[in-house]
Structure formats: structure tokens, C-alpha cells
Amino acid sequence: MVDTADTERDRPLEFRSVPLGEIETARSRHMWTRSAVEVAESGNLVVTGEWDGTVTARDADSLEARWTVEHPDHAVGIASLEGGSSDDGDETIVVAGRGESGTIAAYDAATGDRRWRYDTVEDLGEAVKDTVFYLPYVVALESGADGRLYAAARRYERDGEIRRWHSTVYAFAADGSVRWTAETDASPIALDLDADGERLAVGYNRCMGDHDTGLVVLEAASGDPLWSWDPGTEGDRRVGDVSFDGESIAVSSHGDKRGYLLGPGGAERWRVDLAVETELEDETLYAYPNHAYADDGRVAFVTGNTYAVESRETERRHPNEHRIAAFDADGALLWDDEVRGFVHGLAADGGRLVAPCAQNFRVRDPDTHAVRWFDLESGASATERLDGIATAAAVEGETVAAIEEPVAYHDEGETRGEYALRVGSLE
């Protein structure tokens, strides 16, 4: 692959910032999702979710707080949607939790008043071990029309060599009532709703039980299955992300480390190698394609960390790790570029992509800490470098927001960065 070259590559976004308090410093390896951010009200409101459960809405220009609430769990996901009750058309902020209750709660965007709450622990069951990986976890939120909300939650447990997932996909009405649920013994990782609001794509990352399919497309109104697809690979790794574009769905495959574009019914339109197993001297290396985004006949995929087939420890790097690559409707490469560090979540608005880049623990280079923006059509980029690591991002209109977390590499004695909200303009 060939890097794009553009005069805007290092144009700074000139972020404004506000501190978020204290959080445990990240180390060399990337940590689990601990923060969330959302841009709402057409770019005028920025909402942050913190590991201690604090949720704060701020004016996007002044960064002054409008309201603050305490979510029952770690606040690790945020979405905004129009309407929050059957007789109210105002915007609603929905927060996803990771914790004892696995709470999904909806808050009035103007006041912070809670409109409704749902505890997924009632469906998933309680954690059987007091560690973060066993807690009920709302992994994805997707907003629909008329205040509808879709969510995916999961819980993990292990008994000796036996590993199990308990998961539920939900459809909520505007008042928080449950319209339908879909339960499986696989681990969901991503949701996407088509532009018409008629089909909901659910990506499953780990399939080690009766559910053995990486992608399931449901009828959004009823939850009834329409069709399914799987990369057909060995092992329990299946899908990393899903994204609708009209009748097509882009899928990043953890099974074979490729990117796919599927048509109606799961018909394969094309597939591309992203970070497939590659021989490098005496090792076989690969990287997971963690993110996919499709819009207007173009598809972008983002890859993650390097791993070795025989061991998760390696000093080498896969040639396509930590990269973003965009393809046209026929699967031809349009452009590709480095993201340089691990991307927890890819934010997008139309043809704009924002990648919050955390550490590259193989090389431990602080220059990888940044928020990077790309144009889906041309690949033109801009960069806002951070002292700490960028772990979450959101974009709407001209407003981009990101969360910075502090980091200390294990072979250095220095803590870099702080826990802070960064907000800038893409104009």
C-alpha cells in the first residue's frame, strides 16, 4: 500500500480543552474503553462520559458545563437521538454503562433530567467475578427515528477451560419501553442501522457456543432475522465492525483479517486483504481489522495491533498494522494512510472520519498520540497531536471532540498527558 501525500497532513485542528479530573494512568498496552464522548445539537453540545460514571454536557464553544449527572455504572458509551418520550421532540442523550447493573439511561439534552433507565443485568445475569472483564457491558448504541434506540449488551464468564458469553440486542421505544430483544450466547461488538431505519446489522466478534454466525441482519421493527453471513473461518473470531451504505454492508472480518462488501442477502460483492497472516522471517504475523465505515459508494477499514500466530508477544510489526485504507464501490484502493497508534473507535459524519489514536505499544512512540482526521473520498488529513493518548472521538458538522487520557510507558518514568476533553473545528 502507498501513503497519501497531502499538504494538509499536519495542519493542526487547534483544540480547546477542559480537564476531566483523575483516572488511572494507562500503560504500554492499550486499556479497555474507559471514556466516551458525543457531539449533539448539530455540533453545539459536547457530552462526556467518564470511568467514575460522571456524565457532563458542555457548550461546544465555551466548554462551560450545562449539566452533570452520575450514571450508575462506568459511562463508556454515548449516543444522541431525537425525542425522548412519546410527546416530546427534544433531543435525548443516552449513556451506556459497564458495571454491576449494565445500565442504559436516557437524559434530557437540555437539563440532564433522566427520562428512563434500563438495567441489562436483569437479562445478562450478574458478574461471577469481581473484575472489569466480567461486568455487564453495553457495547454499542444506535439511534433510530422518533426516539427509537437499539443497544447491544454482553457479559462474559469463565469456568476453568469453559468460556461463555451472554448477550442481548434491544430495541427501545422513545419512552424506554422494550419493543423486542434478541438473545444469543455470542459476543456482539457492533450495531448499524440502515438509512431507512428498516434493517439493523449486528456484528458478533466471538462465537464459541450455539450461535455461530458473525453478522446477523434483523428487521428493525420486529427483531426478526432477515439474513446472516459469516467469514467461514476456523476459531471463534468472526466480525470486528459493520456499516451500511444503501443496500450494501461493509464488514471487517476478524476471522481472516479481510474487509468485505456484501449485498442483499449477504452476497459477496468483493473482499480485500487488510492485515492477513504474513510471513516475516521466522514468524507469521497478523493484525485485526477493527473498524469499518461505508458512505456514498466508498468504504474505509482501520487495522489494529500486530500479533503473532504462535505467540501474542513479538518485536516485529505487520506491514499493514495501524492503517486506514479506503476503497471504491468495486473494491479498488482509493488511498491509504497511517493512523500510527491503536484506534479504540472510529468516528464519522458523512465523508469525514476521525480516528482517536492511542499508543503503539510495539514501538512506544509518543508521536503516535493524536487525533487524526481523513476525508473519505480523497484521504486528505489533518492532525492534532496530544501528550496523552486519544481514546474516544465524535464528530458532527464542523465540530470534533476527543478524550485524552494520561499514559506512562513501562520502560519510562514519565507520565504523559492528562484526562481531558479536547474540542476543535474542522473548518
From TrEMBL:
Pfam hit, one: PQQ_2
Q: Which stretches make up the Pyrrolo-quinoline quinone repeat domain? A: 52-229, 265-404
Q: Which SUPFAM superfamilies match?
A: Quinoprotein alcohol dehydrogenase-like (SSF50998)
Lineage: superkingdom = Archaea
Q: What is this protein called?
A: PQQ-binding-like beta-propeller repeat protein
User: What organism is this sequence from?
Assistant: Natrinema longum
